[in-house]
Design a protein that fits this description.
The chain has helices at about 10-35, 45-60, 100. With about 110 residues, the protein is an all-alpha fold. The protein is built from 3 helices and no strands. The longest helix is centred in the N-terminal third of the chain and has 24 residues, at about 10-35. It has 2 domains: about 10-70, no CATH class; about 80-105, no CATH class.
């Protein structure tokens, strides 16, 4: 990797909005089952991110010191952190190309 290139992180905005959308859809389905009346679901990505960032903000504001950043060796997206399977693939990132040699079926 060249110094000017940066490894992209995970899509936190997409993931957080999808989580709240799923919760909204499940709530709407439950409400429709209970009352017979449907409802709409709206999710704003910025609101979802704001909710997810409240814990780090409050920790750094009132916890005495800001949280430390993990090193690339311990970060969830860091290379070399996932265990290797019997064929040498990194089990959490290898996907389908590793599955036929490592797993006999769904886990």
């Amino acid at each position: 990797m060249r110094p000017s290139e940066v490894k992209a992180g995970i899509s936190v905005a997409d993931i957080s909005a999808a989580m709240y959308a799923l919760t909204g859809v499940l709530t709407a389905l439950y409400e429709r089952e209970r009352t017979g009346v449907g409802t709409s679901v709206e999710v704003a990505m910025l609101d979802a991110l704001g909710e997810w960032m409240s814990q780090p903000y409050l920790y750094s504001r009132y916890g005495g010191s800001p949280p430390t950043r993990p090193s690339p060796r311990t970060a969830p997206t860091g290379q070399g952190t996932a265990p290797k399977c019997s064929s040498g693939c990194r089990t959490s990132v290898s996907g389908p190309r590793c599955a036929p040699t490592c797993w006999s079926g769904p886990i």
